[in-house]
Amino acid sequence: MRILITNDDGINAPGLVAMAEIAAELAGPGGEVWTVAPAFEQSGVGHCISYTHPTLIAELAPRRFAAEGSPADCVLAAISDVMRDSPPDLVLSGVNRGNNAGENVMYSGTIGAAMEAALQGLPAIALSQYMGTRTAALADPFEAARRHGPRLIRQLLDRADWNGEAAFRLFYNINFPPCDAAGVKGVRVAPQGRRQGVNFEAEPYLAPNGRRFLWILGGSQTAPATPGSDVDANMHDYISVTPMRPDLTCHASLDALRALEEG
């Protein structure tokens, strides 16, 4: 199996090391793991692509490339250039340092990379490690992802609906809970949730030279969330698995809007 890995934390992120180990175990002795990751951290860029300027790409080692662009740019770089002659069989994005559950999904570059791979017709999975006081005390905060990731990905590859013939191919979002590997209680298939009262916001900051800047801040990651959701599962020490597709249509509302056609 040929696996492409990328992330949004950057080419030197510890989570990418964990992702490489997971991918190597999945690929096996006869497989290949290719890395095309952002040269610098790209957290929060979502599904952004560098449409208005070129992307510099550099080979750092065999099968290891850094691109000065977004995670989605990295997927495009791999498919269109680095792995053009032999595209990947699977794209893995992560392991992100911090969760990409709930409202975080909409901002995540980790998700953006998996979404771009799905748009390109490739099987893709985003992996993120919830961080908290318990993971902070661990020698390896990615322990849960390292231990449980390979088995869960194999199960998804064998059993999940990849819907390859659909207009918008499915991809999967995995979030590991903020605990050690032994503390993981199991897996929950869950919809994307929403933390109560949590929104991103801009905070003004006045620099010593008098210039005014804004910091973008996130809210509490432990706030109560939709029962049965991805966030709720993670907060109860379960791994969450959420099927997603790059389609923002609210299909449930289509029929109610048909009257507009008649008007």
UniProtKB/TrEMBL annotation:
Binds 1 divalent metal cation per subunit. A divalent metal cation binds at residues 8-9, 43, 96. Residues 3-196 form the Survival protein SurE-like phosphatase/nucleotidase domain. It is found in: Cytoplasm. One of its GO terms (cellular component) is cytoplasm. Pfam families: SurE. It catalyses: a ribonucleoside 5'-phosphate + H2O = a ribonucleoside + phosphate. The keyword Cytoplasm applies. Its cofactor is a divalent metal cation. GO terms for molecular function: 3'-nucleotidase activity; 5'-nucleotidase activity; exopolyphosphatase activity; metal ion binding; nucleotide binding. Keywords: Cytoplasm, Hydrolase, Metal-binding, Nucleotide-binding. Belongs to the SurE nucleotidase family. Nucleotidase that shows phosphatase activity on nucleoside 5'-monophosphates. This is 5'-nucleotidase SurE. The gene is surE.
